[in-house]
User: Which sequence fits this backbone?
């Protein structure tokens, strides 16, 4: 977002990134119960969102900043900085296809082997019913962290 605003002047993509953050906050917050650490994480995410939104709606953001317990004026605060170590995901969402047709999306550990991904895919009911229920698997096409395509015959 910093590059979108300061260097490229692409405000639409900056706002889209803010919406992604807001949707992630909603997803996390809508769970049944939040522990103390989780509630603190939601509050920090909201403060970050308000900081990022401030160049677009400064007056409203100052009010929100105060209600979220922010110290001092938001306009005099520092711009949020991303921690690259926290941006690395432990899992990847692999698309499972049978004969080119989408059957499932499964989360697997990043860098999982073809055998591990195949086992996870066949554990799911959609891929197992489509692949093993009808015929034998002739070929397995695996693109690490992205795709598993089962060709049956």
Assistant:
């Amino acid at each position: 977002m910093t590059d979108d605003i300061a260097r490229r002047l692409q405000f639409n993509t900056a706002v889209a990134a803010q919406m992604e953050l807001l949707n992630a906050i909603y997803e996390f917050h809508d769970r049944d119960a939040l522990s103390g650490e989780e509630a603190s994480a939601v509050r920090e995410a909201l403060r970050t969102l308000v900081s990022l939104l401030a160049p677009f709606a400064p007056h409203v953001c100052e009010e929100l900043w105060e209600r979220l317990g922010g110290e001092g004026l938001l306009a005099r605060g520092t711009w949020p900085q991303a921690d690259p170590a926290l941006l690395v995901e432990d899992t990847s969402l692999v698309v499972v296809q049978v004969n080119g047709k989408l059957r499932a999306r499964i989360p697997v550990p990043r860098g999982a082997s073809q055998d591990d991904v195949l086992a996870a895919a066949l554990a799911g009911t959609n891929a197992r019913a489509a692949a093993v229920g009808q015929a034998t698997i002739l070929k397995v096409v695996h693109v690490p962290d992205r795709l598993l395509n089962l060709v049956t015959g």
